[in-house]
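Quick one:
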Amino acid sequence: MRVSDTTLFDDMECFKVETPSATYLFGKRGAGFAGILDPKGCDWISHHHGGQALGEYRGLPKCGQPVKYFHCGYGFGQYTNDNWFTSEVTLREPAHVRIHSETARHDAIGEWDFFPDHATFTLLKIPGDQYWFLYEGTPGGALDAAEDFVIHPDGKRTPLSEPWKEVVPWVVFGAKETPHGLLLFNHQTGSPVDSYVSWPYKPDKDGALNQMTVFGFGRRDWQDPKQHFPTLTGLPAKLTIAVLPDTTGKSIDAMVKQIGGEQKQ
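Output:
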């Protein structure tokens, strides 16, 4: 595992965390991922400045609402503010790296622990004590709503053209461009609601449609008038992500059991 500094778009300073399973591009100012690259080089986030769903909306874990805490775009463009995160590497070992992020006013704090085959986020503090965990990005590098898919815990596989609402402990996203999958694992129990929809889910005034995923632990149904109000409470809170070698049941079950075992320790 290696950690280095890199700059995206000439102004977004990032940590580049390279592991055997994935390369993570972590925005220091916003404390969120601008990119997650699988071993094939496909970017599952694809954040860019501007462009709304084509760029600036994309990110993970995006815990804050309406203030976009833990979003790589926080502090840039329409999210400009004076309460930036300071992110620093606080642990650097051959198989374990930790990044600690805290806002200038100390009102939002979180840590990412990176391991060779997964990464775990711990949310320690956020204003209002209500939050969600969002994946807004591009499975396999670009959202193909008809052919990309999500695998549910019961084994059901649905295309990303199909919105849904279902309480799930984990999901796996897959894409036609790459054999790899992205696992999202919610360590909280008792989530009132989780949901998925492609975004924009209907053509906007410019005709844009299906440009990124919107999946959220703690996110209400896309048709709910309160869909933009997070539902998760209780801190500290954890989320684990993993880029899997493939989307077979064997690979998924092995990682879910591994993460579940770590959760019990």
